[in-house]
Design brief:
By secondary structure, the chain is mainly alpha-helical. It has helices at 3-6, 8-23, 28-55, 60-83, 86-111, 113-138, 145-156, 158-166, 174-200, 207-227. Helix 6 packs antiparallel against helix 10.
Length: 228
């Protein structure tokens, strides 16, 4: 299986999440639990797979430049999200986020098959959450349930588009690849700290919901050990 094929897994998760939410919106406690769990899984993938590749890339300059560009891009995205008004603006911001996630996934596969596989698992959980929540905004614009589900899947398809954008990076010199991986690392850290956890803490919280972050983190570490 190549990187593009793997992206169909999180796209399928978005379809499942959207299908469930179309019939019954999940409660805030469940949504917060999924967000904590997804944050733990994504953080484990970033720390366990992407970070070592960046640290052993052999070019501090590429790491700093790629990381700085990553920070700049995510701050611009954050600014865009803050200015987004109404359902259309919010959904546009979600689309940009998914596109960047796809780009990061493509970069992870360039770093190695194992890194790509683990990040696929992480993004599958995150995109499942997206499918559960984005239907609420889509319902403000669309009436039919099939239209809401189709629009959710259309947004998720931006993930393979982002992965395709990353494909040519593998043909570049190793030092440039290190810079791109550093860029991807910043994007993943932003996803965890400024999106998933921030949104999760806006909902009711308790010790069991908080524990879901560590369950997700340890679960991905266990999977990493099992696949060798």
């Amino acid at each position: 299986m190549n990187a593009l094929t793997y992206t169909l897994i999180p796209v399928g998760a978005a379809a499942v999440g959207g299908g469930v939410a179309v019939w019954r919106q999940p409660g805030p406690a469940l949504v917060s639990t999924i967000q904590h769990f997804a944050a733990g899984v994504v953080f484990a993938a970033a720390a366990g797979e992407i970070l070592p590749d960046v640290m052993h890339g052999g070019s501090p300059t590429a790491t700093l430049v790629g990381g700085a560009l990553g920070v700049l891009v995510i701050l611009l995205i954050k600014k865009f999200e803050e200015r987004a008004k109404g359902p259309i603006g919010l959904l546009s911001a979600v689309g940009v986020d998914i596109l960047v996630d796809g780009l990061v996934l493509g970069l992870a596969f360039i770093g190695g098959q194992k890194a790509g596989l683990l990040l696929t698992i992480a993004l599958t959980v995150e995109i499942l959450f997206l499918g559960l929540t984005v239907t609420n905004e889509l319902s403000k614009m669309l009436r039919a349930r099939w239209q809401i589900l189709a629009a959710t899947i259309a947004l998720a398809l931006l993930l393979p588009v982002g992965t395709l954008i990353a494909s040519p990076v593998s043909l570049l010199p190793a030092v440039v690849v290190t810079g791109f991986l550093s860029f991807g690392l910043m994007a993943l850290l932003y996803l965890v700290t400024e999106e998933l956890l921030v949104e999760a803490h806006e909902k009711p919280d308790n010790v069991w919901i908080t524990a879901a972050f560590f369950v997700g983190f340890l679960a991905l570490l266990a999977i990493e050990e099992l696949i060798g």
